[in-house]
C-alpha cells in the first residue's frame, strides 16, 4: 500500500484506524482470499477506504438508511433556501446548471467567481448530518455547500475544491440524497479517471492531497433522472 509521505501526516484519525485495521485483518488471509479482498477494494464504489494515485477517499454507498435518506431529501428540498447563482462570462450573465445554497457558522464566507457568499445559519437537518459524519471524517465541519440537480441537464463541470479558505489539506465530505448521479475524478497529469455512482444515502470523503492532483465533476446525462441533492461539508479557516 503506497501512501505519499506528505499525506501520511495529514490522514485524519479515521483513515489511520481503517488503514491499521485493514493491515491487521489482511494478515491471516490466504493468497487467494487476499486477491479477492484486493479486487473488491479496487472497485471504485466498494465500501471503505480507497488509496489511489496521489490521494485517498472513503466511500460508503448506504451510510444513511433508505428511510433516513427519504426524510432528509424531502426536508432539505423544502427548507433549504435554494438559489439560482450565475456568473459573468463574455460580458453575459450565465446561470449555473443547478441551484445552490451556502450554510455555516457566522464568519465562514466563501468566494467563488468573484462573489463573496455569506452563510445561512445551520438548520436542524444540517446539524444532524454534520454530527453523523464528523466522527468518520475526523473533523467537525463548520460549513456546507448544497447543490440541487433538478434533472439530467443539471451538472457541475471539472474543478477542484482547493480554495484558499479550505486550508492546505482540506477534508471534504459529500453526502447524497435522491437520484444517483455519476461522480468522476480525473488525475490532472495522467488523465486517469475514476467513476463512483453517488447513490441515495451515500457518503464520500475526499481528503488531503487528492484536491491538488484530481479534479472532479458530475456530468450531464441524457437518461431520465429525478432530482438529486448533494451536500459538501467543509472546514473554512477564518
Ligand atoms: O454534486 C456533487 O457530487 C459534487 C459537488 C461539488 O463538487 C461541489 O459542490 O464542489
Ligand atoms: Fe467540488
What characterizes the major β-sheet?
A: 7 strands, antiparallel
Q: Which cofactors or ions or other ligands sit in this model? A: 2-oxoglutaric acid, fe (ii) ion
The radius of gyration is 18 Å
The CATH fourth-level homologous superfamily: Alpha-ketoglutarate-dependent dioxygenase AlkB-like
Tally of helical runs:
6
Q: Class, according to the CATH hierarchy?
A: Mainly Beta
Q: Strand sequence of the main sheet, in spatial order?
A: 1-2-13-10-15-8-5
Percent of sequence in beta strands: 25-35%
Structural class: alpha+beta
Overall shape? globular
- Distance between termini? 35 Å
Number of structural domains: 1
Number of strands: 15
Roughly how much helix do the residues carry, as a percent range?
25-40%
Q: From the 3D structure, determine the CATH topology.
A: Jelly Rolls
CATH architecture: Sandwich
Task: Report what the structure shows.
β1 and β2 form a beta hairpin. The protein starts with a helix and ends with a strand. It has helices at 5-8, 13-26, 31-42, 66-79, 124-137, 210-213, and strands at residues 48-52, 55-60, 86-89, 92-95, 99-104, 110-112, 115-117, 143-149, 156-159, 171-178, 181-187, 193-198, 203-207, 214-218, 228-234. The radius of gyration is 18 Å and the shape is globular. It has one domain (5-234): Sandwich (Jelly Rolls). It is α+β, with helices and mostly antiparallel strands and 238 residues long. It is built from six helices and 15 strands. The model is unreliable at 1-11 and 13-40 (pLDDT under 50). Helices cover 26% and strands 34% of the residues. It has a seven-stranded antiparallel β-sheet with strand order 1-2-13-10-15-8-5. A four-stranded antiparallel β-sheet has the order 9-14-11-12. Strands 3-4 form a two-stranded antiparallel sheet. 2-oxoglutaric acid (AKG) binds next to β8, β14 and β15. Residues 145, 147, 156, 161, 174, 183, 198, 216, 218, 230, 232 line the site of 2-oxoglutaric acid (AKG). Pfam families: 2OG-FeII_Oxy_2 (PF13532). Keywords: Dioxygenase, DNA damage, DNA repair, Iron, Magnesium, Metal-binding, Oxidoreductase. One of its GO terms (molecular function) is demethylase activity. This is DNA-N1-methyladenine dioxygenase. Its cofactor is Fe(2+).
Amino acid at each position: 500500500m503506497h501512501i505519499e509521505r506528505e499525506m501520511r501526516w495529514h490522514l485524519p484519525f479515521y483513515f489511520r484506524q481503517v488503514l491499521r485495521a485493514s493491515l491487521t485483518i489482511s494478515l491471516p488471509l490466504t493468497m487467494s482470499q487476499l486477491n479477492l479482498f484486493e479486487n473488491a477494494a479496487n472497485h471504485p464504489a466498494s465500501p471503505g477506504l480507497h488509496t489511489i494515485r496521489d490521494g485517498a477517499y472513503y466511500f460508503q454507498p448506504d451510510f444513511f438508511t433508505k428511510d433516513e435518506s427519504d426524510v432528509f431529501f424531502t426536508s432539505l428540498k423544502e427548507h433549504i433556501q435554494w438559489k439560482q447563482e450565475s456568473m459573468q462570462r463574455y460580458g453575459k450573465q450565465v446561470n449555473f446548471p443547478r441551484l445552490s445554497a451556502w450554510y455555516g457558522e457566522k464568519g465562514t464566507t466563501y468566494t467563488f467567481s468573484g462573489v463573496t457568499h455569506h452563510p445561512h445559519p445551520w438548520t436542524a437537518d444540517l446539524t444532524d448530518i454534520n454530527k453523523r459524519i464528523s466522527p468518520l471524517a475526523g473533523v467537525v465541519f463548520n460549513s456546507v455547500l448544497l447543490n440541487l440537480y433538478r434533472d439530467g441537464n443539471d451538472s457541475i463541470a471539472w474543478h477542484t475544491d482547493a480554495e484558499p479558505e479550505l486550508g492546505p489539506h482540506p477534508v471534504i465530505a459529500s453526502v447524497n440524497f435522491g437520484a444517483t448521479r455519476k461522480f468522476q475524478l480525473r488525475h490532472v497529469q495522467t488523465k486517469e479517471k475514476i467513476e463512483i455512482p453517488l447513490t441515495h444515502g451515500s457518503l464520500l470523503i475526499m481528503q488531503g492531497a487528492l484536491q491538488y492532483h484530481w479534479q472532479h465533476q458530475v456530468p450531464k446525462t441524457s437518461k431520465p433522472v429525478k432530482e438529486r441533492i448533494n451536500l459538501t461539508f467543509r472546514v473554512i479557516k477564518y
